[in-house]
């Protein structure tokens, strides 16, 4: 999916809004850094951890790449 980072940082939680307005609460234990406002493409899977990453559909990041 492609969207804009709405809450970034060095993790483990982030937020993303896709182009159709869907909000995602993202989790990654890999220590990646996402910057608020960046456009990214991510692959996700259902999150198995029990942590609150904020509002939106809760998923775990599998892969992320910038969109130029």
Radius of gyration: 10 Å
What's the total count of β strands? 5
CATH domain class: Mainly Beta
Instruction: Compute the number of structural domains.
Output: 1
Spans where pLDDT lies below 50 across 5 or more residues? none
Based on helices, strands and strand pairing, what is the structural class?
Answer: mainly beta
Could you describe the largest sheet, including whether it forms a barrel? 5 strands, mixed, barrel
| Average residue pLDDT | 96
Large-scale geometry: globular
- Helicity, as a percent range: under 10%
How many helices does DSSP assign? 0
Strand order of the largest sheet: 1-2-3-5-4
Percent in strands:
over 45%
What is the first-to-last residue Cα distance?
14 Å
Provide the CATH architecture: Beta Barrel
N-to-C series of helices and strands: EEEEE
Under CATH, the topology is which? Answer: OB fold (Dihydrolipoamide Acetyltransferase, E2P)
Walk me through the topology.
Blueprint: E1 2-7, E2 13-18, E3 23-27, E4 39-46, E5 57-66
Parallel strand pairs: 3-5
Antiparallel strand pairs: 1-2, 1-4, 2-3, 4-5
Question: Would you write up a description of this structure?
Answer:
The protein is mostly beta strands and 68 residues long. The chain has a single domain (2-66), classed as OB fold (Dihydrolipoamide Acetyltransferase, E2P), CATH 2.40.50.110. Helices cover 0% and strands 51% of the residues. The chain contains no helices and five strands. A five-stranded mixed β-barrel has the order 1-2-3-5-4. The protein is globular, with a radius of gyration of 10 Å.
């Amino acid at each position: 999916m492609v969207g804009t980072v709405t809450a970034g940082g060095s993790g483990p939680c982030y937020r993303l809004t896709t182009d159709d307005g869907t909000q995602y609460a993202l989790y990654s234990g890999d220590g990646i850094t996402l910057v608020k406002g960046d456009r990214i493409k991510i692959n996700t899977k259902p999150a198995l951890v029990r942590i609150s990453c904020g509002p939106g559909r809760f998923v775990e990041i599998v892969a992320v790449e910038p969109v130029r």
